[in-house]
Amino acid sequence: xxxxxxxxxxxxxxxxxxxxxxxxxxxxxxxxxxxxxxxxxxxxxxxxxxxxxxxxxxxxxxxxxxxxxxxxxxxxxxxxxxxxxxxxxxxxxxxxxxxxxxxxxxxxxxxxxxxxxxxxxxxxxxxxxxxxxxxxxxxxxxxxxxxxxxxxxxxxxxxxxxxxxxxxxxxxxxxxxxxxxxxxxxxxxxxxxxxxxxxxxxxxxxxxxxxxxxxxxxxxxxxxxxxxxxxxxxxxxxxxxxxxxxxxxxxxxxxxxxxxxxxxxxxxxxxxxxxxxxxxxxxxxxxxxxxxxxxxxxxxxxxxxxxxxxxxxxxxxxxxxxxxxxxxxxxxxxxxxxxxxxxxxxxxxxxxxxxxxxxxxxxxxxxxxxxxxxxxxxxxxxxxxxxxxxxxxxxxxxxxxxxxxxxxxx
Length: 410
What we know:
The protein is 46% helix and 13% strand. It contains 17 helices and 13 strands.
């Protein structure tokens, strides 16, 4: 009898199980619309040209070594990352009240932020503080905050299935009713999984209530630049909240916009009231990191740092990011047009109204099951599809498959 005999079998992570099922499928027209990664029009991963260039520079730089980084990470990476999020002219940066923590991807940034908040926000070791996540949200949000020790994780209204858009009324109502000092996880842009973002005017309404009711803002920024093709446009909400005087956290990921999925490059940007508060916050962050991963890896951070801190490389990177964003926008236009041409029942305007990598199609679970089993088109049970999985070669087949699913399965 093993001492681990009572360990239950955990269910598989849905998106990785979907990919495994796709790989085992031998159908010649199979399509994977589940994986959350960019694909070219040949349905292949893309190493950004600027990343290849910087990797060569790193290899040839004899001044570099493999010594430990500081616990909080590569300083020039942290400062450049925060500047990308907040803008070159950020008053918070000028006031020396912004700091960063290099993390293992956006997930690591979320976890370090969550761990700090559980220990020190609204009193010490306060596990009872409510944490609000959107309904629906990225599946890891609930788990990250639960594993950090929070006991009260609640959904807030976000997706209106009937109109296939933002439920602003429900969202604002939840903000008004939430206990003061509750923590709200907000998607900075390209909401995952719906692809539906508030407009600037709607963000202003959200900010007004959160400021008035002393609610804490924790932005998850996984797609800056990747959503619209503009770094500034995709960071609008973050920068507006900072301009309104919020103390807040921003979990940044460079997986999508640098294509560095397996390097796990992330940053937790901290905006504090003043430098004295920032110094104390980062001192506690350092303690948390020390017992979590001790020191972060250097390769991915060096790639991002060299790119963001060199004007020529920075400009090239923005061009690479726009290439990816433009392809996604093109696929949105094409899919909507093809569904409309087929006369597929319902409205499909939401496909082009949504933004970023993902689209919430509106397909129900039975229609999704039909898509997978009968058409070999793999997508999440929620009806979420990755627009990057669409190509000029498979979009006709996918559109026809959606049409068939909608017309044959209720």
